Amino acid sequence: MTITDKIKKLKKERKAVILAHNYQIPEVQEVADFTGDSLGLSMEAAATEAEVIVFCGVYFMAETAKILSPQKKVIMPDKDSGCPMADMITAKQLIELKNKHPKAKVLAYVNTSAEVKAETDLCCTSANSVKIAQEAFRQDEEVIFVPDKFLAHFTAVQCNRSFIVWPGYCPTHAEIMPESIQRKKEVYPQAEIIVHPECRPEVIALADQVLSTSGMVEFAKKTKAKELIVGTEPGMIYRLKKEASEKKFYPASEEASCPNMKKNTLEKVLWALEDLSFEVIIEDSIINRAQKSIRKMLEITKQPARQQ
What span, in angstroms and rounded, lies between the C-alpha atoms of 92 and 157? Predict the structure, then answer.
């Protein structure tokens, strides 16, 4: 029996659902029930009758799944698969910033810990940050944006407003430099350039489209372009090739690989199902407060929470 067969058998026995973020290695994506972005995956899992969620991603993503499905057991195949950007701000630091700006509302990227979400007025994703900023806050209202300074910059430009910005960033997306984009464009002059809003402003300035990972999938299916230069973690290329196999995709930077996303393997998925470890545990009070910031976001974007 192969590892994949063992995973499928155990998944059924455990009444489990396997989630894989778009940046996961191909073999992990292949055993997943759902592949996508972090919030989308958590919402898919909440809509299932599964008793166990195996989240192949990084820690804040598994926490979000637990927030939306508090009655389910959420397991991570690798307990050390963290997110440097999410770790760049703590709840204590956010509280201190709020105390300095007592009239400000807090908008937090979902790439944050459960404790930070609990101190937040509203969450956003890379796909909806502009819509949330435009519809949830007055133009003259003070808004703290955490933790990603690059997503904050992109959102501020699109909304023609300013934020009180926390200086966090994604080290992986920050590795993508404009020179790399320009070199790829010279080699593939007909290619469209799509980049993630976590990228540097000077990279975003070179893009034809600025898109979340789910947005990249949808755009790749619809665009008439036959070639695309993709400015995000290179693991995304595998998903794009599956969804739009007739097109060619080139990573903007092969070096921009997230080491934490690559920690999950088939063996670790199997062991997680065997031992039901490592489980994500969050205090009920944190879950309840964090839920509010996510639900407000879903109300604005008119997405169902799909919590069971």
Answer: 29
